[in-house]
Automatic annotation (TrEMBL):
Residues 278-290 have a biased composition (Gly residues). Keywords: Membrane, Transmembrane, Transmembrane helix. One of its GO terms (cellular component) is membrane. Residues 278-323 are annotated as: Disordered. It comes from the Bacteria. Residues 291-323 have a biased composition (Basic and acidic residues). InterPro entries: TspO/MBR-related_sf. The chain crosses the membrane at residues 24-48, 68-89, 101-118, 124-143, 164-185, 197-214, 221-240, 246-266. Gene3D superfamilies: TspO/MBR protein (1.20.1260.100). This is Tryptophan-rich sensory protein.
């Protein structure tokens, strides 16, 4: 009996034309994303927080994270660059995960650049459409990472799982902030206790959405870290900056904690499920092995019985000849 092969995400296939097209597409998209970033930070255009009439600044709405929160983009952009290099490595060119995620990664980079360009024009509601598309693409990408087995080495875990987990977690929070900015820019009031309670409901719903994502993808710490990061800085902003709201500060902090707890729960569930699956597989394998061993014993007994009958037949012929 032989052991079942375990997929490691390796492949010995030669690169195809589709692989090369995918690699080039990712690289061009990364360049576009980089150029969009230079526009967004004010090198070639207006800084994001100053665009769209200031609607996207850190103190524009109740759901805006304070300025420090946006430093996570540096980590995400570095990860996207690393991913672009990673997918060109000879050992990763035909990697199943590179094939499964390449076009989605390229789409996320183009949408990122598109969002920055749209906000430059002051098209705040168009930016909502772009960021919603971005979060959907990232959600599908992370699901793909969950479905396609990969190598469990630090390079892949950091460059692929880490980068896109952070990207998804942060953009999930940014989407809520973007919608709030669009509403306020359209004249929706955020004054009064009612607006604060609506903000609390929104951050709790956001935590529930992230928890649902975590249930689907088995609880990824990168997603949780970025989501909790964004929610925590919303809490800090409402506690220490305008528009001030102690109620929403506590609500956002609670939402951040809920995201972490949900992630831990679903990771434990995924681990238990994997353990149960392994146990069931081992039990089935043991049962199959026992059955095969029993059958072999029966075959051996049959051979010995045939040999004994053959031996008796020879003895009988010898006696007849002597007579």
């Amino acid at each position: 009996m032989t052991a079942s092969p375990v997929s490691t995400g390796r492949t010995d296939l030669r690169p195809t034309r589709a692989d090369r097209v995918r690699q080039i597409l990712v690289t061009v998209s990364e360049i576009a994303c980089l150029l969009g970033t230079l526009v967004g930070i004010g090198v070639f255009g207006t800084r994001v927080e100053e665009s769209s009439g200031g609607s996207l600044s850190a103190d524009a709405t109740l759901l805006a994270p304070t300025g420090t929160a946006f430093s996570i983009w540096s980590v995400i952009y570095l990860g996207l660059f690393a991913y672009t290099v990673w997918q060109w490595l000879p050992s990763r060119t035909t990697d199943p995960r590179a094939r499964a995620t390449g076009r989605l990664a390229a789409a996320s980079m183009l949408l990122n650049a598109g969002w920055l360009l749209v906000t430059q024009q002051g098209w705040i509601w168009a930016s909502v459409g772009v960021i919603v598309a971005l979060v959907l693409v990232l959600g599908l990408l992370v699901v793909r990472l969950t479905e396609v087995p990969g190598r469990r080495d630090p390079l892949d875990l950091i460059v692929v799982d880490g980068t896109f987990g952070l990207y998804l977690g942060w953009v999930s929070v940014a989407t809520a902030a973007n919608v709030a900015a669009a509403l306020v820019s359209s004249g929706v009031s955020q004054e009064g206790r009612g607006a604060e309670w609506i903000g609390v409901v929104v951050v709790l719903v956001l935590a529930a959405v992230v928890a649902a994502i975590q249930r689907r993808v088995g609880g990824r710490w990168a997603v949780a870290a970025a989501s909790a990061w964004g929610l925590s800085w919303i809490a800090v902003g409402r506690a220490a900056d305008e528009p001030r709201s102690v109620l929403l500060a506590w609500g956002a902090a609670a939402a951040a904690v809920l995201v972490v707890l949900a992630t831990a729960y679903f990771r434990r569930g995924a681990g238990a499920g994997a353990g149960a699956g392994a146990g069931a597989g081992a039990g089935a394998g043991a049962g199959a092995g026992a059955g095969e061993e029993h059958a072999e014993q029966r075959r051996a007994e049959q051979r010995r019985a045939e040999q004994r009958r053959a031996g008796r037949a020879v003895d009988d012929r010898a006696v007849d000849e002597q007579r």
